[in-house]
Write a structure and sequence with these properties.
The structure holds 2 protein chains of 2 kinds. Chain A has helices spanning 2-10, 12-30, 34-55, 86-116, 121-130. By secondary structure, chain A is mainly alpha-helical. In chain A, helix 2 runs antiparallel to helix 3 (34-55) and helix 3 (34-55) runs antiparallel to helix 4 (86-116). The longest helix of chain A is centred in the C-terminal third of the chain and has 31 residues, at 86-116. The N and C termini of chain A lie far apart (58 Å). Chain B has helices at residues 5-23, 31-56, 78-105, 110-129, 133-152, 158-187, 192-198, 206-223, 232-238, 241-273, 278-298, 303-324, 333-360, 371-374, 376-390, 396-411, 415-440, 458-480, 484-493; strands spanning 59-62, 73-76. In chain B, helix 1 packs antiparallel against helix 2. Chain B is built from 19 helices and 2 strands. Classes of the chains: A mainly alpha, B mainly alpha. Chain A binds chain B through residues 21, 25, 28, 34, 37-38, 41, 44-45, 48, 51-52, 55, 87, 90, 93-94, 97, 100-101, 104-105, 107-109, 111-112, 115-116, 124, 128, and chain B through 134, 137-138, 141, 145, 148-149, 152, 157, 159-160, 162-163, 166-167, 170-171, 173-174, 177-178, 181, 184-185.
Chain lengths: 131, 499
């Protein structure tokens, strides 16, 4: 039992991202309501973003601005003193992409609702069958 | 100068799309000429790039002057240059074809359509020129998001089809992003050429193998490989006419290109040798797609849906050719040949299908009787495309099948011969049904005006006829061997073509 806990705790950020991703995928696949599917989609995207963000973290490191480093004046700059900014920058872009996707998805949901008067996928499919 | 062309070809449609958006407030009509101007420039630029690549070797462009492992690099070699010419000319001809259908299908928002259309082109041209994995993700999403909104403009089920496409497409994109993350953990790099050099000592690690699987599934969704194809038929069917043509040809082929680029350029053959038998899996998935797509196509009565399922079968052909690449002396040639051929053939077919819808609002194959007399030229173009698809010599489809069969014989994977044979037979079944209804079946005529020729407008007819003629011209060009040096160069950069 202790071993299991230590395995989980040693890579906690990855476990959390996997769990979040599975919640998101489950909602996208199993839920019938389109808005719930979109919420699932957003959870999935957030999971990926958190995964990337956690890549940049280091123990006892600070923000990557040189003058803020530990004893930056006294000795040469060490990369280990600073967190890795690249994943964060990448995720700024990915957040923009996620927001844009969400915007398009919500606009589409409004249009679908105007057309079918429902957001339940099975009810829409039933209406389509009648056509 | 020539080393800056890859950046210009992406920036140009992006800038013009903003101009179209703002000019649309005053003059809706300005959208079309601006878009056509930008696309003509793109075609000329891509031809310039191809020339410069064939004479002077690959082009490297560093965005903002930052050196590759840190900055984003645009990289164009023979494979990209070939795809650029193909995709940009498809975009141009589709735009010319689209003018009348757009005016008919979305009055009042013509300028917005052209704005989105150029953004879509920015995305797909960007995917082709980029040499950076994360940049590829961003451009893939630019292309996908504009794709979703363009599909949603259509009538009937289009909005529902679009939201399904969006949800499944986002899963694909997220999987691809996770794959990039895994590669980044292990290597600290996102540049394709850099990754290719760093990866070899890490080939045995589980993380890199998981990254490959995530990226492969992500692209599998985007190219609609058989079990992952569920979004594709509805999206192709209910999209507006112009959008069906562009997403079934240029966008679909761009995703296939990205898959080829990631498999052969980032992971390379040496990785796959030590991993699962990826290429055998690809071959078998492709074989199932070829048969299943054709069987679904047979039972469709909606013409556009039939074409969509036929596209699934043809993606199978391309993926089969990719799967055979490491085992045969032809390398990637059959895959590239079919990418070009299928784009030309399917463009022509969708153009004909949308002309029927534009003119008579005809979706259902069972009501096509007598069309051969009423729209003779469109039907002639369609007939040429059908003959090419089935593989009549000397058409484009014949060259594809010839090369594929040579590759199968060379790789000694004989079972796939049966799959090609059966899928061709199934193709003949569903296309013959169409020819029979269009040309042979007659219906009792109630109204004499039903017998008069009512051809589509010239701006739609000429692109269809050009593509109809190209289906045979391209086949002849392949046989003369003018483009073969490009294919050989692609094979040699990937270390393919000699066992």
């Amino acid at each position: 039992m202790n071993e299991l806990i230590s395995i989980i705790m040693s890579k906690l950020n990855y476990w959390i991202y996997i769990v979040l991703m599975m919640i998101g995928l489950y909602a996208m696949i199993a839920k019938k309501n389109l808005v719930k599917k979109i919420i699932g989609m957003n959870i999935l995207q957030t999971a990926v973003i958190l995964f990337f963000i956690s890549l940049g973290a280091k123990n006892k490191a600070t923000i990557p601005i040189i003058i803020h480093g530990h004893a930056a004046e006294s000795h040469a700059i060490q990369a280990t003193d600073y967190i890795n900014p690249l994943p964060h920058v990448l995720m700024l872009t990915a957040i923009v992409v996620a927001v844009a996707t969400l915007g398009v998805a919500l606009a589409l949901v409004i249009k679908v609702f105007q057309q079918y008067q429902t957001l339940e996928e099975d009810e829409i499919l039933a209406q389509l069958k009648d056509e | 100068m020539s080393h800056q062309l890859p950046a210009i070809i992406v920036v140009l449609p992006l800038v013009v799309s903003f101009f179209i958006f703002f000019s649309g407030w005053w003059v809706q009509r300005a959208g079309f000429p601006l878009a056509i101007g930008a696309l003509i420039c793109c075609v000329l630029l891509s031809i310039g790039i191809l020339k410069s690549v064939t004479t002077g070797g690959a082009i490297h462009y560093w965005l903002g002057g930052w050196e590759p492992p840190w900055g984003i690099e645009y990289y164009v070699d023979h494979l990209n240059a070939f795809m650029l010419v193909l995709v940009s000319s498809l975009c141009l001809f589709t735009a010319i074809y689209a003018k009348r259908t757009v005016e008919a299908e979305m009055p009042g928002s013509v300028a917005l359509f052209w704005c989105l259309y150029l953004l879509l082109n920015t995305g797909i041209l960007g995917i082709i020129v980029t040499g950076d994995l994360f940049n590829l993700f961003v451009l893939l999403e630019v292309a996908s998001l504009t794709g979703y909104s363009l599909v949603a403009i259509g009538k009937g089920r289009a909005r529902f089809a679009s939201i399904r496409y969006l949800i499944i497409g986002t899963i694909g994109a997220s999987f691809y992003l996770i794959g990039i993350g895994y590669l980044y953990i292990m290597t600290g790099s996102l540049n394709m050429a850099d990754l290719r050099m760093i990866l070899p000592p890490l080939y045995e690690t589980k993380v890199i193998q998981a990254a490959f699987v995530f990226i492969f599934i992500g692209f599998g969704i985007k190219i609609a490989l058989f079990p992952l194809h569920t979004w594709q038929p509805d999206a192709y069917t209910y999209a507006p006419s112009a959008v069906s043509v562009i997403i079934s040809t240029a966008v679909a082929k761009t995703s296939v290109y990205a898959l080829i680029r990631v498999i052969f350029s980032v992971f390379t053959l040496d990785f796959i040798k030590g991993f699962l038998p990826v290429f055998d899996i690809l071959c078998w998935m492709a074989a199932i797609a070829m048969i299943a797509g054709s069987i679904f196509a047979i039972v469709q009565n909606n013409f556009k849906k039939m074409l969509a399922y036929s596209s699934i079968a043809n993606v199978g052909y391309i993926v089969l050719a990719i799967g055979l690449a490491p085992f045969c002396t032809q390398g990637l040639s059959p895959a590239l040949i079919h990418i070009l051929n299928h784009a030309v053939i399917k463009a022509c077919m969708f153009m004909a299908a949308c002309a029927f819808i534009y003119k008579f609002d005809l979706w259902d194959i069972r009501k096509f009787a007598g069309l051969g007399r009423r729209m003779p030229f469109t039907c002639f173009a369609l007939l040429l495309a059908i003959l090419a698809m089935i593989g009549m010599p000397p058409s484009a489809g014949f060259v594809t099948k010839w090369y594929l069969i040579l590759a199968i014989l060379d790789a000694q994977k004989y079972p796939f011969l049966i799959f090609i044979f059966v899928s061709t037979l199934l193709m003949i079944v569903y296309f013959w049904r169409l020819i029979e209804i269009i040309y042979i079946r007659t219906t009792p005529v109630s109204n004499p005006s039903d017998l008069q020729i009512a051809e589509a407008p010239l701006s739609m007819l000429i692109p269809s006829l050009i593509f109809g003629g190209l289906t045979f011209a391209v086949g002849i060009v392949w046989m003369t061997g003018i483009i073969t040096p490009v294919l050989d160069a692609v094979n040699s950069t990937f270390g393919l073509g000699s066992r």
